[in-house]
Structures are given as C-alpha cells and as structure tokens.
Write a structure and sequence with these properties.
Helices cover 40% and strands 19% of the residues. It has 423 residues and is an alpha+beta fold. The protein has a five-stranded antiparallel beta sheet with strand order 3-14-11-8-9, with helices on one face. Strands 4-5-6-7-10 form a five-stranded antiparallel beta sheet. A two-stranded antiparallel sheet has the order 1-2. Strand 4 and strand 5 form a beta hairpin.
C-alpha cells in the first residue's frame, strides 16, 4: 500500500507537470501576448506551434500579429509622407485597412491639388502674402486595436469554444488638420468684439466650419455647411476653405455674391466637375456676410442659409438663394447680394441647418425653424456668453426628449454678432 501510494503520488505529480508545460504555460503565453496587444505592444518572439489545438490558436494569433505589424508599418509610412508605400488589406472585410488606403489616396490627392494651386497662384501673380494661410497636410494617425481574449473551457466532457473579437478603429488624423484652418478665438474677438460661436461637430471632425477674416477694413465672416459630416465632411471643408480664401483674394469689391460665385467655380474645379463622370452631389451651403461696423451695414449672400437680424423683439429674415454651392445642375447660376442697414444693438445670426434638423422632444421630431427663431428672440438681449449657454442647454434638453437621448444627426454651427454703432 505504501509503494502504491507513492507510485500514485509520483504519477499525479508527472501529470501535473505535463499539464502545466503543455496547456497552462502556452495559454498563459497567449494571454500575455493578447494583453500586450491591447496596450499596443507587439511580442518580441514568435509563438511556438505545439501541434495541438492550443498550437492552432497560437498560429492564428501569430498571423494576427503579422497583420497588425504590416498595418502599423503602413500607417507609419503614410505619416512620414510616403504615399507610394505598398499595402494590401488583411482581407476583403478589413475595414481598417480599407480606411487607411482611402486616407492615403485622399492625402496624396490633397498634396497634388495643393501643388497645382500654388502653381496657378504663382502664374497669375495674385498671391496676397499677408492673407495667405498655408495649409500643411499633417496627419496624426492613431490605430487602436483591441483583441478580446479567446477562452476555451473544458468541463465534464463539454467543450465550448468562444472567440470574441472586437476591433475598433478610431482615426483622428484629420482633426488637427481641420483645426488649423479655423480662426483663433483671439483673432475673432479682435475683429468681432461682441460675438459667440456655437460649434458642435457630430463626430471628431466636422463638415461645418466658420470663417472670419479682416479684408480692406471690413470683416468677412461665414457659416459653411459642407456635404456630409465626419471624415467625408472634413475633406469637403478643406476644399471649401481653400476655395473661399482664393475667391476672397480675387474679389476686389468685396461683393459677397461674387465671392460665392467664385467659390462655387473653384469648388467645382477641385471636385473635377468638368465631366459627367464626376458630376457628383458633393457641395456646400453657406451664409456669407461682409460686415462694415463703421458704416453700420452688412452685405449678405447665401446658399440655402438665411441671415437673421433681431431688432427690438422682431426677427428680420434675409432669405438665401435655394441653390447649393458647386451644384452641377446650376453651374452658371449667379448668387444674389443683399445689403442691410444696422442699428445699435442689433443681433446678427448665421447658422447651418444642424440645430433645426436635430431630432428630439417628446415626439422625436425635428426642432424646426419656428422654435429656433423663438429661442433666438428670447435670448437676443442677453450677453453673448449667456446666449451660447442657453443654446447649449436647449439642445441638450431637446435631445433627451421623453427620456431617451437622441443621437446628434448632423454638425451644428451658430454664429452670433452684436452690432455696436460707432457713429
């Protein structure tokens, strides 16, 4: 009995050692690698193939690591400006790989368009150095990939195999680039001392952008709503900003209608609208104001975006042309200029349609223009800092509705300027 007990003890010890070496240690190694990948750390050594099911898991993980390394290397090369670096997605369903290729092609095309614009400006000798804003295509890429651990549980002749993979990719490369085209708060407050800008992108980057610039003693400011939102809208906003800068530089009379006409032409050229094959629906809506504080006037032209002026408890509406900028169906359309005299204390509002199109309330419907005007009427006499707070609170309350929080459906932009007569 003693010998048998000793033999059973030694046999159990051997089985335990064998289990640790053949199962526990490989599984622990897989766990270590997966935890490292979740932190962006690649394994320094290759995974061994043990020839069993755990070995198959190891080889699958090895293939995943190789694919991530190739994707990371491609991202690094694109970040360095090497747009010709070869790369193939990991599979037909590799959304991240396709997004990276799409980003690379967009950046490469953006770089080519930039060089072409510089060549045209040099040939025409119409570059205004003091107003030129050089846009550098700097892209910050981050790839964040989390692979959930694969657990295999064996218990009482039952085998359950569960593999949970959740790959989330967040691309922030365009955020810094888009922020570089927006004017600083300091410059805006210098040109428009009593103003607010309520800017709430739907995603990390936005299809809406605002424009404020001093030109020939007047202040040109605009609220622009490009087709789409997120990454596609952001690329459109870069096209729109470049075209607006160029149209403004070439317009000596500061006629807002002529500026929009020029912007529409340049945007159509940038989007290759010269052929039927490229006659897409990408475009933009805009409210453009040329503000003369000395003369107490504002010259306005707009594309689907009206101008509101609130004076003595009344909303004065200046309607926009019902044509999108860059529309292929109205290539020869001329926008309308409208001039409005201002009185001391007038509040000027221009905006995109994101606020009025937001779903919410107890019935889950759009906010609409009439309630939007009523809200502006109720806050027009408040200081601009208080106005922006009411606008934000009203939007949050509307989205919550009857308890359910409605997702933001579009980018939101509202600009408010109070006129102070200098007479």
């Amino acid at each position: 009995l003693k010998n048998m007990s000793l033999a059973l003890f030694l046999f159990g010890l051997i089985i335990a050692v064998f289990t640790i070496r053949s199962i526990v240690k490989p599984v622990s190694r897989l766990k270590e690698i997966l935890l490292g990948l979740s932190k962006g750390i690649f394994p320094k050594s290759a995974v061994l193939d043990t020839g069993d099911e755990i070995g198959e898991m190891s080889m699958a993980l090895e293939q995943l690591v190789k694919g991530l390394k190739r994707t990371t290397e491609f991202s690094r090369e694109v970040g360095r400006g090497n747009f010709d670096h070869e790369y193939e997605p990991l599979s037909e369903d590799d959304e991240l790989g396709k997004a990276l290729l799409f980003m690379r092609d967009g950046l490469k095309e953006g770089e080519r368009q930039k060089l072409e614009n510089e060549r045209i400006l040099l040939e025409n000798e119409k570059v205004l150095l003091e107003n030129e804003r050089v846009l550098e295509d700097k892209v910050e890429e981050r790839t964040k990939e989390v692979t959930k651990q694969k657990n295999k549980i064996e218990k009482q002749n039952e085998q359950r195999k569960e593999l949970l993979e959740n790959i989330t990719a967040s691309i922030r490369y365009a955020k810094r680039l888009q922020e570089s085209i927006l004017p600083t708060n300091e410059s805006i407050n210098t040109l428009l001392p009593d103003n607010f800008i309520f800017y709430k992108p739907k995603d990390i980057v936005s299809g809406d952008f605002y424009f404020v610039k001093e030109h020939k003693g007047k202040v040109v400011f605009a609220a622009v709503d490009c087709t789409g939102h997120g990454v596609p809208g952001a690329f459109m906003s870069l096209v729109g900003h470049n075209a607006l800068n160029r149209a403004l530089a070439e317009n000596t009379s500061l006629d807002p209608a002529e500026i929009i006409n020029g912007l529409s032409k340049y945007a159509a050229n940038a989007l290759n609208r010269t052929t039927e094959l490229n006659s897409g629906r990408d475009g933009m809506d805009m409210a453009l104001c040329v503000y003369d504080a000395e003369a107490s006037t504002v010259d306005y032209s707009g594309s689907n975006s009206p101008l509101y002026i609130i004076r003595n408890g009344e909303v004065l509406i200046t309607k926009a042309d019902k044509i999108a900028i860059g529309s292929p169906d109205h290539a020869d359309y001329s926008f309308t200029k409208q001039s409005v005299g201002l009185k001391d204390g007038d509040m000027i509002y221009i905006f995109s349609d994101g606020y009025v199109d937001q779903f919410g309330g107890s019935e889950g419907r759009k906010f609409m223009y009439a309630p939007f005007r009523e809200m502006l009427l109720s806050i027009a006499s408040l200081p601009v800092k208080d106005q922006i707070q009411v606008i934000s609170d009203t939007l949050d309350k509307w989205r919550r509705g009857a308890g359910a929080v409605h997702e933001q459906v579009d980018d939101i932009l509202i600009i408010g300027v109070r006129h102070h007569s200098k007479a």
